[in-house]
Amino acid sequence: MTRQSEAFKELIRLMRLEPLEDNLFRGASRDIGTERVFGGQVLAQALLAASHTVEGRQAHSLHAYFLRAGDHNAPIVYSVDRSRDGNSFTARRVVAIQHGRPIFTLAASFQVEEEGLEHQFEAPDVTPPEALNPMALLPREEFDHMPKSMQRWLDRFGPFEFRAVRGSNPDHPVPQPPFKELWFKLHGSLEDDPSLHRALLAYVSDFHLVGTATLPHGISWVQGKLIIASLDHAMWFHREFRLDDWLLYVCDSPSSSGGRGLARGMIFDREGRLVASTAQEGVIRLRREDKSQESRK
Prior knowledge:
Blueprint: H1 3-14, E1 18-21, E2 24-27, H2 39-51, E3 58-66, E4 76-85, E5 89-98, E6 101-111, H3 140-144, H4 148-154, E7 160-166, E8 179-186, H5 194-205, E9 226-230, E10 232-237, E11 247-257, E12 260-269, E13 274-286
Antiparallel strand pairs: 1-2, 2-4, 3-6, 3-10, 4-5, 5-6, 7-8, 8-11, 9-13, 10-13, 11-12, 12-13
């Protein structure tokens, strides 16, 4: 079994929440070799928790805030508030709790399926994924000689394959315009469950997004000089899609200031349909000598 298929199965297991009581769920975390739980994991699990309380409707938008770093050694409890059940729209609020404190909040809206006026931005004309090489984080020999904790961190990309159209080389960053395009898909086949596809798209949308705000500054997390932490995440689901086929992530960053960077994303399928949009602001700081300051947001 390949590392990719093992990571895919582990990811699917993470998406299976344990019902504790009405509107209360528990999720496990994955150790990725850092002190924090990956934000995309909490985002996906919270969206699934909300989805488990909704019938006959799919999420069309979410707005989330990351409040505290999650502890991967402890489970996360998701408390769902059934805010509203209307004729067409349903609203849910979710609080993720660890050690008695909220670490994350999410508001999500669900809608019955209906038809309406349609338009969208055109997908950019880019190189297809088949003509691109997979993004290799490190040569296998170098990867195998790294500490296990760092292997887990780098292997968080395992469930997905990424192929960059335009981006940056994290080992040799140079200043460039704040634009990025890359293809991605799951390393495995997914069942026909729109809620699961949406949750996993939320999961993977946290990769590469806010990092777009670092491109004009020619600096990378690999150099150890940068602190990046997600502050919030917004997402809108426009059309149905499959995550086990190639999707194109088109990202830009309109601004970086005050120790924060803003990034936006559009996600297209192979046919050029705009299936989702994202926006995220994150802390972007140069690392200080005083270590006590680094964990603060």
